[in-house]
Amino acid sequence: MNMHARPTPEAVSTVLETLRQAFGDRLQTGRAIREQHAHSVTWRAAQLPDAVVFPNKTREVAQIVKICAAQGVPVIPFGAGTSVEGQVNAPFGGVAVSFRDMARVLAIHPEDLDCVVQPGITRMRLNEELRASGLFFPIDPGADASLGGMTGTSASGTNAVRYGTMKEAVLALEVVMPDGQIIRTARRAKKTSAGYDLTHLIVGAEGTLGLVTEITLRLHGIPEAVASAACTFPNVTEAVQTAIETVQSGVPVARMEFLDAASVRAVNAYSSLSLPEAPMLLLEFHGSDASVKEQAETVGALAADHGSSGFDWTTEPEARSKLWQARHDAYWAAVRAHPGKQGYSTDVCVPVSRLAEAVDAAADEAASRGLAAPILGHVGDGNFHVLLFADPENPSETSAVDAYAAWLVDLALSMDGTCTGEHGIGQGKMGALERELGPALPYMVAVKRALDPQGIMNPGKVVRDANGPA
């Protein structure tokens, strides 16, 4: 495919006919199913693929890629549809490859603390299957995302402050490359110095360099004790400063989430809770009974120094589950609190030492622009989200949201931060990536062109110049 043009109707027709012969009714071209596979948690307009195909093994994925490559037709991977920056859109048409039927745990190695999974399995189902082994997979982005999608965006989430992101969790990958070749990027060893690190080149590439068909993941033992706590603060600065000091003190907190007053208000209404409607930290501690108690007491003392109230911690599973489910529902709670509007979640990440300043500035700027903008985030690692709302049919409202999101990126970059801590680039932040990395972009483009010279792998994402028209 010419990287600056949509494939011809004849090329698409040839691909669909060939795929139909190979896959029968596992190739679908109905509008409803194509709309479903261009849908994600974003207000960006859906751009439909020409068809959706459902492989069930790696060699079928390779067959699909070879058929598409022969005619220069785009290939777009689809997991659970929970991305927020248009990663599953098909701006040049093409074939969406759904990993719905590649959702198995292939191997669990308890003695090595790892497992091998197919990309379509979701994190919640993986943890259900791991429970009997005494192990768990800690990366928790909130949504029940697929592991393939999480690998593609290098997801993180509420546990990242202790357990890291997908970059730390992925040990090796099996990948179908743009020419249909199947490769393995590494073995199961916990570390390696063997050659270029293709594993972590593919992690975060959003399907633009190849299709992941197997993932080897680092696991952790289920902790002996788990405790959760919630505490409120007189203002945003004191809450965030408590988070900063907790990290700087070396407390191995597992989760540390911030919600501003607007977020708590929405969560109360949505989840039938009665949390104090003030800036809040939600925390979770993992370890032995003694270490969990020590962690909670240490953080409680730090919070008290910053005027907190209501620092109550519990090991009771039902209470913990209710608290964290409310946090995971915060986006939907905020959407419900703004009827007639559509939500847009944007994220940035800054050095932890600049976090309080960044969150305060983000709140002040939203207020000065007259925008409703609840703020929440994984403050233990400097990552926070701003939820913005607009009527997608009202250009002045959507323009105001876009302008604020661009301002927020500039704020993060001015603090030596990044335009995205976990959402990825997709379509929505290509310009932000250019502002962030500037002279590095041509080298990213060179990698893309070297591996995918036809530009067929999820085109129109991550690096603009290598993936079609602006």
Protein architecture, described:
The protein is an alpha+beta fold. The protein is built from 17 helices and 18 strands. Helix 14 (355-368) packs antiparallel against helix 15. It is globular.
Write the SSE topology.
Elements (H helix, E strand, L loop, with lengths): L8 H15 L3 E2 L2 H6 L14 E3 L4 H14 L3 E4 L16 E4 L6 E5 L4 E4 L5 H8 L4 E2 L10 H7 L6 H4 L2 H4 E7 L5 E3 L13 H5 L8 E8 L1 E2 L3 E8 L3 H13 L6 E5 L1 H11 L8 E8 L1 H17 L3 E6 L2 H12 L1 H7 L5 E8 L5 H14 L6 E4 L4 E8 L4 H20 L15 H8 L3 H11 L19
Parallel strand pairs: 2-4, 3-4
Antiparallel strand pairs: 1-2, 5-6, 6-10, 7-11, 8-9, 8-10, 12-14, 12-15, 13-14, 13-17, 16-18, 17-18
Strand content: 15-25%
- Low-pLDDT residue spans: 466-470
Shape: globular
The whole-angstrom Rg is 22 Å
Q: Major sheet: size, sense and barrel closure?
A: 7 strands, antiparallel
Secondary structure tally: strands: 18
The neighbouring-strand order within the major sheet is 15-12-14-13-17-18-16
Oligomer: single chain
Relevant terms:
single chain, 470 residues, alpha+beta, 7-stranded antiparallel beta sheet, 5-stranded antiparallel beta sheet, 17 helices, 18 strands, 37% helix, 19% strand, globular
